Structures are given as structure tokens and as C-alpha cells.
TrEMBL record:
First and last residue of the signal peptide: 1-24
Keywords, alphabetical: Decarboxylase, Lyase, Signal
A biological process term (GO) from this entry: phosphatidylethanolamine biosynthetic process
Pfam families listed in its UniProt record: PS_Dcarbxylase, PSDC
Record flagged with keyword Signal: yes
GO MF entry, a single one: phosphatidylserine decarboxylase activity
GO CC annotations, alphabetized: mitochondrion
Protein name: L-tryptophan decarboxylase PsiD-like domain-containing protein
Location of the L-tryptophan decarboxylase PsiD-like domain: 83-216
């Protein structure tokens, strides 16, 4: 902790020197804050609710610090941005409203923020968007590893505190902003399907098959990697995945995720490997979002389709989120017929700004501003880029239900692999998330009397295709 504090301080000084000496000029204000002792704020805790999205403070700060050092060097060099970042910069700086909102974000952000202004962020993105995600080892001054964790969603880590501002809430919801950002993220998505992106699929200390990473991929009772997933070549360290995307969208072996009682049409299975975020009964057509009490508003979730939304009024919403370590494909929770598929373009990294973690937060101290997007998941289900897959269940007691795949950050592509009219069985693949943080929801109408299994509680992790509920 002491190391983390002192290097952060040193680096803040270096960055200020750099900007005040005129080597780099920026129309954006730099506000480097170094007046906070992070080790006093964070207890050493194992993050659970933020499940794999937010690394522990040591790793989080070390990751940002590493990128600040490289960005600072490139900025003093006057290095050009990579094409996708340069295009994003042009889109923002040619628009006075978007430019001003970025200024406001840096004025409003928590003093814990370590991203040094919009230009600094662009230089950091230059590095992140040409690399596959990896693990990150925080080291002490002698280079010894203190702690290592996955940076499962690196751009999210850069955006995390910035998103928790009123200005970001306004900016990130602008369709022109979301489109510019998505274009930049898509160039990363293309890279992640390239052969070069397999370079973190190694057993190096920061690789995905190193000891720290494998332990995390196999945690929460997920099973050993080779016996759980479909592995192209178990003899290779990379397991033969040709790209990071292939690794991320890996298939699961049927024997590792069996469906118990597949013929019992009253049982509903988990569509994703995920951690329960919220279960809400008696859903409303329209609802308002207040800071703490986020209700579900069916009309907004279902992209303003009044006829379909009305059919779910009074029904049940089940929402659960996926960690970067989880399996990323979606499986049908019921037997039935696909009645409609809708892809909704939406926001990336947008959050409901809040006053920080609540008093009963399992991971962060009360008032900690990190993780607002994770706390905003109910709201994100109404705003994010998402896929709506309506399924008419063969069991009339279930009737029409809807699966919603919700992209939350990073590339966030929702890829539907079923078509209208297609018959699906429980466990049939519906689609997948390409790289990104994600959540999902299941909607049931008022006709479906859904009882969740006793072990389906908030913050519990459930394997894909395990039984989560029964209709009676
Ligand atoms: C930060 O807080 C920790 C815990 O109270 C303390 O041990 C450490 O000395 C502080 N660091 C500085 C630079 O004040
Ligand atoms: C400056 O740029 C060159 C070439 O782009 C690079 O090799 C060098 O490491 C950069 N310097 C710093 C301090 O990053
Ligand atoms: C892996 O190695 C085993 C034993 O050497 C061999 O029998 C098998 O064919 C190899 N598998 C692949 C996919 O290369
Ligand atoms: C990545 O793929 C290339 C072939 O495209 C292969 O030569 C290389 O060994 C692979 N890297 C890893 C870490 O498996
Ligand atoms: C469901 O919500 C409606 C409208 O808010 C309310 O009138 C009704 O009493 C609620 N039903 C139950 C069972 O809570
Ligand atoms: C819903 O199911 C539960 C559990 O089987 C049952 O106790 C309850 O009476 C049912 N409610 C209705 C309205 O049918």
C-alpha cells in the first residue's frame, strides 16, 4: 500500500511537470489529485458483488499507474494516436457539447480518479485497444509481485470513476457519443479476433493460463478448464484458441453443464453462467429511476414496444451478471419457439451517478465511488446495447417470456444465433457476448407463477443450464 501511494504521488508530479513545461498542450484541464491516501479508504477485501469487474485496489491502481507512465511518455513524444482513437478524438473535439461535457466530467469526478484528463485518457486507450486483456501483477519497488488479478474489463477500469458523474451520465447517453465510442470499440473487437490477440493465452505470470489466472477461471466451482470447456488442442498452452475472442466465447462441454430433468417443462434453467443481481415481482410498465431504488420499467427495457411490454406487466424480472471468468454464451431457459428478436443499440459505460457504495455493500466501504455502473445494473438493463429474444414457451403456464442480453462495457457486442420461428429446447444456444462486461435478464408475464429455487439468492453464482426456478 505504501508503495502504491508513493509511486502514484511521484507520477502525479511527473505528469504535472510535463504539462506545465509546455511539451504537451491540451484544451482540457488536467486535475491530478494526489491528496488521498487510498490505503486508509480500502480495507483489504475480496470483491464479490463486483465479481471480476473491479480488481482489488492495489491491482486497480497499479494497472492505471502503469498505463499513465506509458501514456505520459508517448504524450511527451507527441506520438500520434492509433487510427481508431484519433477518429474518436475528432468526433468529440469537433462537437462543443461533447467537449464541454468531458471537461465537466473531470471537474465532477471523485478525487480518487487517477485518469489525467481527456487527452491522457486517449493516450491510455492507445495502449489498451491494441492488446488483448490479461492479468495484471502489482509489484513493489523491488519488482516482487504483491498481488495479481485479472483486468477483465480494462476500459471499464479507466471509465469507472469518470462514469460516476452527472456529466458522464448526460454524455454517455447521447446517441452520437455512443456511436463514436462503439466505432472505436469495434476496432478493438476486430483486433481481438486476429491471430495476434492470442498472445495473452500463455502460462506466463500475466497470461490467462498462468497459475493465478487458471485459479480464477476455475473458481466458484466452475470446474477445471480442460474438463469444462471445449478445448481445441489441450496439448498447447493456449489450448489452441486461435484468438482472444475464440477463448472468450469458448463452448462448454455438455457433460460439464448437464440439464437435470430436461423433460420436466415446469423447470426453468439458467440462461447464463452468472451471479444473481436482482429478482423483482409485479413489474410495472412505466417506472421512474430514483438514485437508490431502481425499478424495472418494462416499456423502456423492451425498447418502447408497448404491445409486448404490456404482456409482462405484473410479471417477474430476474437479472444476473456475468464475470469476465464466466462462460459467455446464452442458452435457452425453456423449450419453445423464438417469436421475435430485436437488437437495441444503446449506451456503453453509462451509469446512474450515485453517492457511492451503500452501507450494506459487501465489498466497498460506504460512500466509495467505484463501481457505480455495477450498482446501476437495473438501470443499465434499460439503456445499454442489448438483445431481446422473445420465446413462446411450449408450457402454457410459462407462456411468452423474454431473454435480454445486456452489454455493459468494452466491445459489448451482442450476437444472436437464433431466428424468429426457430424451435429451441432448454439449453439450445441463443447467442453470445463478444468481449465485454455483461448482464442478462429473464422476463416472465403475470400468468407465470414463478418460484425460484432456494439457493437462488442475491450474489450467488449459478452455472449455465442449472435449474433456477419452477412454474406452478
Ligand atoms: C496511509 O494510510 C495507511 C493506513 O492508515 C498508513 O499506514 C500509511 O502510512 C499512510 N500513508 C501515508 C503516505 O500517509
Ligand atoms: C517515444 O517514442 C518512441 C517511438 O515512438 C518510443 O520508442 C519511446 O519509448 C518513446 N518514449 C517514451 C518516454 O515513451
Ligand atoms: C495431444 O497429445 C496426445 C499425446 O501425445 C496425442 O495423442 C494427441 O493426438 C494430441 N492431441 C492433439 C489435438 O494434437
Ligand atoms: C498464436 O498463434 C500463432 C499462429 O497464428 C502461433 O504461432 C502462436 O504460437 C500462438 N501463440 C500462443 C501463445 O499460443
Ligand atoms: C402490483 O402493482 C400494482 C401497480 O403498482 C398494484 O396496484 C398491485 O397492488 C401490486 N400487486 C401486488 C400483488 O403487489
Ligand atoms: C404459486 O405457486 C406457489 C408455489 O407452488 C403456490 O404456493 C401459490 O399458491 C401459487 N400462487 C398462485 C396464485 O397460483
Amino acid at each position: 500500500m505504501r508503495w502504491q501511494w508513493s509511486t502514484t504521488l511521484l507520477h502525479a508530479v511527473a505528469w504535472l511537470t510535463l504539462t506545465s513545461s509546455g511539451m504537451a498542450t491540451s484544451p482540457f484541464s488536467f486535475s491530478v489529485r494526489s491528496d488521498v491516501n487510498t490505503s486508509e479508504i480500502y480495507p483489504s477485501t475480496r470483491l464479490t458483488r463486483y465479481g471480476g469487474w473491479i480488481p482489488s485496489p492495489v491491482v486497480y491502481n497499479s494497472f492505471i499507474h502503469k498505463h499513465r507512465v506509458i501514456a505520459s511518455g508517448r504524450m511527451s513524444n507527441g506520438s500520434a494516436h492509433i487510427p481508431a482513437v484519433a477518429e474518436f478524438e475528432r468526433a468529440i473535439k469537433s462537437d462543443p457539447v461533447m467537449t464541454e461535457l468531458w471537461n465537466q466530467i473531470f471537474l465532477q469526478v471523485s478525487p480518487l480518479n487517477q485518469v489525467p484528463g481527456f487527452d491522457g485518457l486517449l493516450y491510455m486507450l492507445d495502449q489498451v485497444l491494441v492488446e488483448p486483456p490479461s492479468f495484471h501483477m502489482a509489484r513493489d519497488a523491488q519488482g516482487n509481485i504483491i498481488q495479481g488479478e485479472s483486468i477483465g474489463v480494462p476500459v471499464y477500469v479507466l471509465m469507472d470513476l469518470l462514469a460516476n458523474t452527472g456529466a458522464a451520465h448526460d454524455l454517455f447517453r447521447m446517441p452520437a457519443y455512443a456511436a463514436a465510442l462503439k466505432k472505436m470499440l469495434n476496432s478493438w473487437g476486430t483486433y481481438l479476433t486476429s491471430p495476434d490477440s492470442n498472445k495473452t493465452l500463455t502460462d506466463d505470470v500475466e497470461g490467462w493460463f498462468g497459475p493465478t489466472a487458471l485459479a480464477s477461471l476455475q473458481s466458484a466451482d466452475r470446474g477445471t478448464f480442460d474438463s469444462t470447456y471445449v478445448v481445441p488442442n489441450p496439448n498447447m498452452t493456449s489450448r489452441g484458441f486461435p484468438s482472444f475472442d475464440a477463448f472468450f466465447t469458448r463452448e462448454v462441454q455438455d457433460s460439464a453443464r448437464p440439464i437435470l430433468n430436461p423433460d420436466d417443462s415446469s423447470l426453468i434453467v439458467s440462461a447464463c453462467e452468472s451471479t444473481v443481481y436482482r429478482i423483482a415481482k409485479n413489474a410495472s410498465l412505466h417506472d421512474q429511476f430514483w438514485l437508490k431504488a431502481q425499478h424495472y420499467s418494462l416499456y423502456d427495457m423492451l425498447n418502447h414496444d408497448n404491445d409486448l411490454a404490456t404482456q409482462f406487466v405484473g410479471g417477474t424480472v430476474y437479472q444476473a451478471f456475468l464475470s469476465p471468468q464466466d462462460y459467455h454464451r446464452w442458452r435457452s431457459p425453456v423449450d419453445g419457439v423464438i417469436s421475435k428478436v430485436v437488437i437495441v443499440p444503446g449506451t456503453y459505460y453509462a451509469a446512474l451517478p450515485d453517492e457511492g457504495a451503500p452501507a450494506d455493500d459487501p465489498d466497498f466501504p460506504e460512500g466509495d465511488p467505484h463501481g457505480a455502473a455495477i450498482r446501476s445494473q437495473a438501470w443499465i438493463a434499460h439503456s445499454s446495447a442489448r438483445a431481446l429474444i422473445y420465446i413462446k414457451s411450449d408450457n402454457p403456464k410459462i407462456g411468452l417470456m423474454c431473454f435480454i442480453g445486456i452489454g455493459m462495457g468494452e466491445v459489448s457486442t451482442v450476437d444472436v444465433t437464433v431466428k424468429k420461428g426457430q424451435q429451441v429446447k432448454k439449453g439450445t444456444e441463443l447467442g453470445m457476448f463478444h468481449f465485454g462486461g455483461s448482464s442478462h435478464a429473464l422476463l416472465f408475464g403475470p400468468q407465470a407463477n414463478i418460484t425460484f429455487a432456494d439457493d437462488v439468492q442475491l450474489d450467488t453464482h449459478h452455472k449455465v443450464m442449472s435449474t433456477i426456478a419452477q412454474v406452478s
